[in-house]
Amino acid sequence: MLILFDNGTPRTLARYLIDRHAITEARARGWQELENGKLLNEAEAAGFEVLVTTDKNMSYQQNLTGRKIAVVVLGKGRWTLIQPFVAQVVAAVNAAKPGSFIKVDIPFN
Length: 109
What we know:
This protein is of the alpha/beta class. The chain is built from 4 helices and 5 strands; from the N terminus they run E-E-H-E-H-E-H-H-E. Strand 3, helix 2 (58-61) and strand 4 form a beta-alpha-beta unit. It is globular and about 35 Å long. The relative contact order is 0.21.
């Protein structure tokens, strides 16, 4: 799958996904300033299948009905908090279907 990492997504996470997926960061495309709706439009038009983000409000702000892109929302943005839950994040990305929101809860430890 072609995956887009939003600004808050730690790039270290890509190491755990690159064996099965192609990953690009929003900033590499010049999309770091785009609001959520515009970012989804651009990502979808560019062929991205999954957006990985730390923006917990996206599921409330955006309707994915009829979209080709899925969104995986990480509960936290710091790598040290995400690292113990990498298997859950990878599983969520692998299970993502067009138009779906998947939230990966990452408790604060």
